[in-house]
Structures are given as structure tokens and as C-alpha cells.
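Structure first, sequence second, as always.
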């Protein structure tokens, strides 16, 4: 598990290899990840958007921005958490992701950036 705390918001990530498949005559490697966002601060927060940097061992950096997470903009109360599952397709068996969430702190009305730690993907057969 990879974990990072920013402004009292703890982000924890677990990854897993889902398998390989062909798409558009190319081999792809599917990875899944589970993210838990835990509010350790004294104020309620809302996740509004996300920014990802996706690294593939065979390709250039891919940037991805979007609203919320998996179609939701969760409000996380103090002491509570939000967990979701998502996935990533890579052209190689090794890669990584990192990024940040843009949130609103309801106690201070401030926009905050909560960092998502770098987490790595590796297919079991790609490692010695």
C-alpha cells in the first residue's frame, strides 16, 4: 500500500494486475487500483476534480483530467473516508501513476490540492 497525507487528507492506494488482452492488434496490460481517501482534518471536504500523470515504460507520459472520481464528487466528513476502484491500461507490463485531487474545504471555503502518491504497476511475470 502506498500512502500520503496532504492538509489532513490521507490517500492510500493498492494496486493489482488484472491480465492481458489484445486491442487494436496490440497487447495491453490491465491494472486495477483501489483508493481510499480518509479525512483526518477537522473540516468536511468535497472532491471536485482529479489530475493524473500516467507513466508507461514503453510510452510517453499521459495526462488525464476529469470531474470527480468514477462519476461522483464525494463529500467526506471529518473522520470518514471514501473508497473507490478504477483501472488503467498500459502498453507495457510496468508503469506508474501519480496525481492530485482538487477539493474544497467547507470549514475555510479554501480550494485545496491533495496529492496522490506515486503508485507502481507491474505484471508478476515482468519481475525477477
Amino acid at each position: 500500500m502506498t500512502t500520503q497525507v496532504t492538509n489532513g487528507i490521507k490517500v492510500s492506494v493498492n494496486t493489482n494486475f488484472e491480465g492481458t488482452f489484445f486491442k487494436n492488434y496490440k497487447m495491453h496490460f490491465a491494472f486495477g487500483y483501489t483508493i481510499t481517501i480518509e479525512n483526518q482534518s477537522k473540516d468536511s471536504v468535497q472532491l471536485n476534480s482529479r489530475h493524473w500523470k500516467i507513466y508507461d515504460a514503453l510510452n510517453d507520459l499521459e495526462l488525464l483530467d476529469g470531474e470527480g472520481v468514477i462519476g461522483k464528487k464525494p463529500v467526506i466528513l471529518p473522520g470518514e473516508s471514501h473508497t473507490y476502484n478504477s483501472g488503467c491500461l498500459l502498453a507495457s507490463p510496468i508503469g506508474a501513476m501519480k496525481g492530485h485531487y482538487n477539493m474544497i474545504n467547507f470549514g475555510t471555503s479554501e480550494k485545496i490540492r491533495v496529492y496522490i502518491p506515486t503508485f507502481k504497476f507491474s505484471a508478476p511475470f515482468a519481475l525477477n
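Margin note: The chain has a mean pLDDT of 95.
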